[in-house]
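Internal tracking record. Fields below are filled automatically when a chain is submitted to the structure queue. Please do not edit lines marked as system-generated. If the sequence contains nonstandard residues, flag them in the REMARKS field before resubmitting.
Queue: standard
Priority: normal
Entity type: single polypeptide chain
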Amino acid sequence: MSCTTLNKRGAGIADTVAIGIPSEAVHMGVPVVAMPYFDQARGAQPAVARSIATLREQGVLVLEARRCR
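SYSTEM-GENERATED OUTPUT FOLLOWS
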């Protein structure tokens, strides 16, 4: 997922179907996996770490990929 999508989900913003369905599913007991993928500059933003932590607290399995350059 993009940095924007990650931070929207972390903040509880589900303004598209692509964000809304997994956001609802995790709270219905459906296993949800997310894999953010963006450059190092975006990954360095403090909101990224907070969003990942929030999603993990909700039960989302967040995979961390190598960041693209």
